[in-house]
Amino acid sequence: MKYPKIRELAEAIKAVVHGPYTSRFPKEAHVPHPNFRGQPKFDESKCVGCCGCEEICPVEAIAHRDVVDDAGPPRRLMIHYTDTCIFCGECEAACIADNEGIKLSTDWELSFFDRKQSYETIEKELVLCEICGDPIACKDHLLWISERIGELAYSNPTLYLARLRALGIADENIVSALKDDWRSDRVKILCARCRRETTLTTAD
Ligand code: SF4
Ligand code: SF4
Fold first, then answer.
1. How much is the average pLDDT of 69-76?
2. CA atoms of 139 and 124, how far apart (whole Å)
3. Residue 143 has what pLDDT?
4. pTM higher than 0.70, yes or no?
5. pLDDT-derived band of residue 34, with 50, 70 and 90 as boundaries?
6. For residue 56, which atom of ligand 2 is closest to its CA?
7. Residues near ligand 2 with C-beta < 6 Å?
8. E-strand spans in the chain?
9. Looking at ligand 2, which atom is closest to the CA of residue 49?
10. Which is the closest atom of ligand 1 to the Cα of 40?
11. Of 3, 57, 76, 178, which has fewest CB within 10 angstroms of its CB?
């Protein structure tokens, strides 16, 4: 007869006293360990919509889509594809919003019937160029930059206007009242191309 090893015996006694190591899933909901690396989740209130996580993701599980239509204000959808993610945590590590715009969760139940539904999104308000209408950045991202660089933001009208408008103290009349062949357009929220054209070209 083969006798159990001492270690196995000790484990068996421990299991009798403290209960089994395995859970009774699916009869009972499984509670993962707090350090379990589950599905990353966006936090809409913390994310600034910079797309840094999209750049860093090794398997392209994060994407964004800029939406400009009549259904609402311009917005950026940040999309996380749960069927592609490998839960590596690179997105959280690279997140510029103090690693809190997207975070790994302990969510592990990711089964679904339709693969097309295996994604989650958040919406961030998008700022458009006031001349051509192209997307510039998310409003929160502009504010994030202006907060980081402090008074240097006042060297860039896109940044300081975004900040003044967020504070509710921008005087829109000053921007719209000036009509001096492109020069007034410099004091607007502009994309890089329109900013260059207001500076380097002369209107006919
Ligand atoms: S955990 Fe890794 S694979 Fe998943 S979205 Fe983040 S970076 Fe991409
Ligand atoms: S703030 Fe963080 S979560 Fe949001 S888009 Fe940027 S890197 Fe991704």
1. 93
2. 8
3. 94
4. yes
5. confident
6. 7
7. 42, 47-53, 78, 94-97, 101-102
8. 40-42, 62-67, 75-81, 102-104, 119-128, 135-138
9. 5
10. 1
11. 3
What are the φ and ψ backbone dihedral angles of 99, each rounded to 5 degrees? 60, 25
Closest protein CA for atom 6 of ligand 1: 91
Q: Whose Cα sits closest to atom 2 in ligand 2?
A: 95
How would CATH label the architecture of 38-127? Answer: 2-Layer Sandwich (3.30)
Residues of the chain within CATH 3.30.70.3270 domain(s) are 38-127
Q: Give 63 Cα–ligand 1 centroid separation in angstroms.
A: 11
CA-closest residue to ligand 2 atom 3: 101
Inter-axis angle of helices 157-167 and 139-149, nearest 10: 110
- Higher-confidence residue: 34 or 48? 48
Atom 6 in ligand 2: residue holding the nearest Cα:
50
Distance of CA 58 to the CA centre of its chain: 16
Distance 158 CA to ligand 2 centre (A): 21
Pocket test for ligand 1, best of 37, 42, 88 (most atoms within 8 A of CB): 88
The closest of 65, 53, 75 to 138, measured between CA atoms, is 75
199 CB neighbour count, 10 Å cutoff? 12
- Beta-carbon contacts of 159 under 8 Å, excluding residues fewer than 6 positions away, are 142, 145, 146, 149, 153
Query: Cβ of 5: how many Cβ atoms within 10 Å?
Result: 9
Cβ atoms of 139 and 152 closer than 8 Å: no
